[in-house]
Amino acid sequence: MAEIVAKLRYISGEFFEVENLVYMELTGDLDAACDGLRLRFYSKNELPEVKEVTLYINGEKAFFGYCDKQEFTKNKHGGSIFIYARSSAALLVDNEANPATYNSPSTNVLFHAEAKAFGFKNKLPDLVSEHEYSVEKGTSCYGAVNQFVKTLTQTSIRVNCENELVLPDDSKTTDLDLTDITEFKKCVNRAAPVTRIDYKISAETPYNRHYKSRFCEGAKIMRTRKLNISSLPAWQREYTLADIMQNAAKDYYTVTTVIDGCHIFALNSRAKLSGVLSPDDNYRLYRTVTTYDESGEKTKLVFLKHNDLKEVSYVAE
After folding, report:
1. Residue 245: Cβ-neighbour burial (10 angstroms; 0-12, 13-18, 19+)
2. Could you read off the pLDDT of 234-283 as tens digits, one per residue?
3. Using an 8 Å Cβ cutoff, are 117 and 160 in contact?
4. Neighbours of 161 (CB within 10 A)
């Protein structure tokens, strides 16, 4: 059984270690800025207002973030506290970036403009672009940094438990022994992939430009979208088309496994499931859900296969 330790910090600065834990759920998603943590534990009395939450699993820090919701419930059987918290990336999500246009932007420049003031550390690769980059009104601080990085790398940034902005490491492997797996599911989802995007780059022209996936076409999927990208800078247009198509097809092939116990795995790590997936299958860890309750512990892992969509662009005559 895993050792689960949850520590709360009140707005006064005092700490409280949770006892009588009834339920814990920790979720992480590769494309979501924040991890989410739910806690429920018995308590005779209401607690002071909670600001910060830190979770350790088997001595390893698994979560650090800020309390969004705190509930105290009492009935004839006793009292309980419920806590919902988001990881510290919530600071970047909840604050709006300064609208600005950057010439020759870099991750370092954007970090200093949007994240440094909140106490974060920059562990992102040093990426630089020769193109102009605009942050529009209404963009979050997270979005200002992430959109730039994702345009160049096709990967969303993460904020780890040490308040560091990082790119998920794609060199790690999640190696599962089949004897550890209590539930296994493979799914083919043909409901969302897009075969072709018809687009235009000026308001006056028709949708005579096309961005097509030969992979989806070969799978006999017939689904098109219309898109006006005339307002986008030229260097972001190809990325936007590719991102829409990749997002639509991201859960085309999924593998879901459930194992006993509470475990920590690195998002974006490559799945290694001997006897189930071939070594050439490019499945990456996309989502984790770790739960504990009075009936036991389990960790659900969702792997998505990265498919080469074989995109091509062409203009209709």
Report:
1. buried
2. 888 888 999 999 999 999 999 999 999 999 999 999 888 877 777 678 89
3. no
4. 18
pLDDT, tens digit (0-9, with 9 covering 90-100), for 283-306: 999 999 999 998 899 999 999 999
Q: Which of 263, 262, 261, 309 is nearest to 282 (CA)?
A: 309
d(CA 40, CA 69) in angstroms, rounded, equals 12
pLDDT tens, position by position, 38-68: 999 999 999 999 999 999 999 999 999 999 9
> Is pLDDT at 176 greater than 90 in this prediction?
no
Strands 224-228, 196-200: pairing is: parallel
**Residues in contact with 205: Cβ distance below 8 Å, sequence separation at least 6, in sequence order:** none
118-122 long-range Cβ contacts below 8 angstroms, 24+ apart: 118/91, 118/92, 119/163, 120/88, 120/91, 120/92, 120/159, 120/163, 120/164, 120/165, 121/162, 121/163, 121/164, 121/165, 122/164, 122/165
Q: Which residue has the tokens 């920590």?
A: 264
What is the DSSP track for 250-273? TTSEEEEEEEES-----TTPEEE-
Tokens of 15: 């700490």
Q: Name residue, tokens 């609208």.
A: 99
- Cβ contact 71:80 at 8 Å: no
Please, are residues 33 and 89 in contact by the beta-carbon 8 Å criterion? yes
Whether pLDDT at 205 is above 80: yes
